[in-house]
Amino acid sequence: MRNRLKWLTPALVATALVAAACGNQAPNGPAEDGLRVGLAYDIGGRGDQSFNDAAARGLDEAKAKLRVAKTQELEATAGESDQAKEQRLRLLAQQGFNPIIAVGFAYAGPLQKIAGQFPGTRFALIDSLDAHAPNVANLVFAEQEGSYLVGAAAALKSKTETVGFIGGANTPIIGKFLAGFEAGVTAVSPKKKVLVQYLSQAPDFSGFSSPDKGRVAADGMYQRGADIVFSAAGGSSTGIVQAAHQSGKRVIGVDSDQYLQPALASAKDAILTSMVKRVDRAVLDFVADVEQNRFVAGEHLYGLKQNGVTYATSGGFVDDVKPRLEQMRQAIVDGTIVVPTTPKA
């Protein structure tokens, strides 16, 4: 059974919190009939074809494979305050959901405040090490490693002297995507130019949920000579994919294997590959750890070595360069190639 609330108004939050406080306090462990798993999405929620959908797949897999009795999914709204995120996490905890997964680094501050109030609840924070508590697991990724491989793929497949990178917002995590992409491009074609554009500037994160902005940015890059653009822009990637399809160019997807996303089926011919970030695996691992009483707080890193990031081969568009990409993958795993985490100045 899955209960999903697309959004919460302040009045609904207040009502739910009062109800929760009157008898739905979080238990110290899972219920006898199975876990009650709560998931707090970032902006865009289930259906963004990217980051949040990867988390949703992990939750769905947990329901199919593990002893999960009930789930609840709540979603962030554009421009909301940290207080709204705190309310969302508190609501889940007070309603007895345990464990709870916070999807995205924007939950770090709110979770830091909430975790101590519910010491019996196990929390996971995706994409940030900035919340520290004995009941918080930090699920983080080596985005730069997967981005290096798709950067190399872009350089190997490009027929021009220019490729592009579009980030949802200028944040340290998106900087890791860019750093790896630049390094992969340079490793193959040192003289190839990488155009860079962010759709918003932190703390404005609307660039992750603005397909129209993504489309305009991508159109501009294609007009400036780029024939392949890497979209590290979450839900905005749908607009970037459409721009690639309409212009007859290529795009590299992000987080999910976007070639397989139903909402992008009409434009999938433009998707060269995707930098797949296995948020689904991290979510499943976390829920399984709680179920089997092996929860460990702190950092859990997912890189190439842990199969936490990779590149997609759907469509067969990179099959001809796959041997070269696999050599690079192994070199990164072995430590022969060390991928930078900060982009060029």
UniProtKB/TrEMBL annotation:
The ABC transporter substrate-binding protein PnrA-like domain, residue ranges: 43-341
- Name the SUPFAM superfamilies for this protein: Periplasmic binding protein-like I
- Tell me how this protein sits in the membrane: Lipid-anchor
**Superkingdom of the source species:** Bacteria
Tell me the keywords, alphabetical order. Cell membrane, Lipoprotein, Membrane, Signal
Q: Where in the cell is it found?
A: Cell membrane
> Where would one find the signal peptide in this protein?
1-26
InterPro entries in UniProt: BMP_lipoprotein (IPR050957), Peripla_BP_I (IPR028082), PnrA-like (IPR003760)
Name the protein family: Belongs to the BMP lipoprotein family.
Protein name, as recorded = BMP family ABC transporter substrate-binding protein
Source organism of the structure: Nonomuraea rosea
